[in-house]
Design a protein that fits this description.
Elements: H1 2-15, E1 18-20, H2 23-31, E2 38-44, H3 53-70, E3 79-85, H4 90-95, E4 103-107, H5 121-124, H6 128-139, H7 152-170, H8 181-195, H9 198-205, E5 210-212, E6 219-221, H10 231-250, H11 255-283
Parallel strand pairs: 1-3, 2-3
Antiparallel strand pairs: 2-4, 5-6
Amino acid sequence: LLAEKVEQLMEWSSRRSVIRMNGDKFRRFVKAPPRNYSVIVMFTALQPQRQCSVCRQANEEYQVLANSWRYSSAFSNKLFFTIVDYDEGADVFQQLNMNSAPTFMHFPPKGKPKRADTFDLQRIGFAAEQLAKWIADRTDVHIRVFRPPNYSGTIALALLVSLVGGLLYLRRNNLEFIYNKTGWAMAALCVVFAMTSGQMWNHIRGPPYAHKNPQNGQVVTTHTPAAFLDNSNTDAAITMGMVLLNEAATSKGDVGKRRIICLVGLGLVVFFFSFLLSIFRSKYHGYPYR
């Protein structure tokens, strides 16, 4: 019976890195003995009507990890990757008293899963590298993650270079704007804004996708557009306002235009500096300024 189960799982793995399971397959190949192999199960809800965007993102990382294992030289019949969708195995969710998705669980070759066999997604996140580290701790199987090449950055850079080159060609007889200090200052601020944003911090540090607020238990996500509204970007907006104030004071252009630039710069400084103070007051209670 064990040889038949292993042979069937190997056949399915040869077709697809992640084996889809319903209730019957789960009970036969994952829960029922005999079993001399480990099974990683992703419990999820991928159907569009479930509207689980986190499930789709976690599934992409899970597929990357499973493909890295399937096409590695260390691939063996000691570890299998499976998935149970709620709409295909609702009875499995009920059997395990599971009411949230996505969830990753490890089912060892012998015995029942322990607490550490459930992946702490809220604290660690669902990146393929983090899942591989967890699997190595539970199974001693080390998986080197290989991601498919992503050419979107190269294509975007090529389009940007082409756009700038085309603009310079069209303006080849009038290139005085290249020596505009204000334009270069604004461009530098845009770079600072991008490089110091919360989203860049997320990219470098790789924090968990979501975590609970210890005070009220509310789940907070870090990978959202609100991540751009951090202190560094507020400082960049204040600096942009100061640049506009300096331009209004030192330029010799039309008085009305200078007045508008001055008001815009003053508005940026006042609004974002007030916003910065409000952030400090919310983070550090008793902060004396507002």
